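Structure first, sequence second, as always.
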């Protein structure tokens, strides 16, 4: 039996006591009266005031009764608190086992062994009315650090998966470009690209993803700091935070650009990440005008394509819901706002198109980087022929010389 049950058993007969205001009781023992009488506790020169009828004004009587009632309630609560502490201490002394308060820290591994029911014979039975379970973490700072680790792991994992897919696509497209006879392309070109990526280039992708993940975590920390310092409304701190966020945003986009081209060069030559990034960046800087023109034109075409497809799907859904034949066949009720599903499907279509056009974007970047290297390494002679397709040679005005 725990202390709470013992208190309820011992103090049930005394629940109706009315105490004089300011009366403090000292417990000298605990026990149940044998004769059924209610014992009285007094201190020198003070007595318990019995209830009696006083012929006075009704309002004065009500006020006096409320004062006596509140004083009695405070005295009863004080008795219970003192009794509980004394009982807990007595049980601890008699049984030789520590008594834990509710909410006290405990170890679930040793709780079952050390906690015993004191009401059992020799106190050998395990606790039935007490348990040790998780309620919270003592140090919240560790939680913040672990959440930061989770955010970092999430960014790293997502960038790693994205990098692996880019490496697979780059390996496949580069295999097609560097095939002199395009019709002789291996049947399992994509499977070969997947095999090479998983066997040789996972470390390269992980390292590239790690760099961008670190920058992303720094940006998250900057956003957190900016959220905290907003309440001070300091123009200097706002300027510094804006500069830092802008700088790391530019750094992240630059690293994404370098990573993408490094994956392409790694898929072509099989070198490590740093060497591939250096070669790709040098090649692009030597052809900076071509890079800018192709990049902007390709981005505009991809954006225009995604926009037209999304708008087309939205209009198709809207007019399909306006068509009476649909409701005649489905036996359904008309929608009140047909533009709502049309807008939702347009947004979903744009997101899906973004995923699909990323494949085309990787194909354009891979073929463009291979084209730049082909132009620098080869001159169209029989010893160094161009590997670009015939259509591309016609557009650029280039051709391979034949043996005479």
């Amino acid at each position: 039996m725990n202390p709470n049950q013992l208190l309820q058993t011992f103090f049930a007969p005394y629940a109706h006591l009315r105490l004089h205001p300011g009366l403090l009781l000292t417990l000298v023992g605990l026990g149940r009266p044998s004769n059924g009488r209610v014992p009285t506790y007094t201190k020198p020169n003070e007595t318990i005031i019995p209830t009696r009828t006083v012929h006075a004004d009704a309002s004065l009587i009500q006020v006096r009764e409320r004062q006596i009632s509140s004083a009695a309630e405070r005295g009863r609560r004080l008795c219970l608190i003192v009794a509980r502490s004394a009982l807990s201490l007595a049980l601890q002394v008699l049984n030789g086992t520590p008594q834990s308060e509710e909410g006290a820290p405990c170890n679930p591994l040793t709780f079952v062994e050390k906690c015993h029911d004191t009401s059992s014979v020799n106190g050998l039975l395990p606790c039935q009315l007490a348990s040790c379970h998780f309620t919270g973490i003592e140090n919240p700072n560790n939680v913040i650090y672990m959440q930061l680790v989770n955010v970092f792991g999430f960014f790293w994992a997502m960038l790693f998966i994205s990098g692996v897919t880019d490496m697979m696509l780059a390996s496949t497209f580069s295999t097609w470009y560097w095939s002199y006879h395009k019709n002789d392309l291996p049947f399992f070109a994509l499977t070969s690209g997947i095999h090479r990526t998983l066997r040789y280039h996972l470390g390269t992708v992980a390292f590239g993803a790690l760099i961008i993940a670190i920058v992303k975590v720094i940006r998250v920390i900057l956003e957190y700091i900016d959220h905290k310092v907003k309440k001070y409304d300091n123009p200097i701190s706002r300027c510094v935070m804006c500069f830092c966020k802008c700088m790391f945003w530019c750094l992240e986009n630059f690293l994404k650009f370098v990573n993408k081209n490094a994956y392409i060069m790694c898929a072509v030559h099989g070198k490590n990440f740093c060497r591939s990034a250096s070669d790709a960046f040098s090649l692009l800087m030597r052809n900076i005008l071509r890079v800018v023109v192709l990049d902007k034109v390709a981005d505009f075409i991809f954006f225009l394509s995604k926009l037209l497809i999304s708008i087309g799907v939205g209009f198709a859904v809207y007019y399909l819901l306006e068509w009476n034949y649909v409701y005649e066949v489905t036996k359904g009720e008309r929608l009140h706002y047909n533009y709502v599903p049309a807008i939702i499907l347009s947004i979903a279509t744009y997101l899906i198109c973004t995923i699909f056009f990323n494949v085309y974007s990787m194909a354009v970047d891979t073929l463009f980087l291979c084209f730049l290297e082909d132009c620098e390494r080869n001159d169209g002679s029989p010893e160094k022929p161009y590997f670009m397709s015939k259509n591309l040679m016609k557009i650029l005005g280039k051709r391979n010389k034949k043996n005479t």
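Margin note: Residues 139-286 form one domain.
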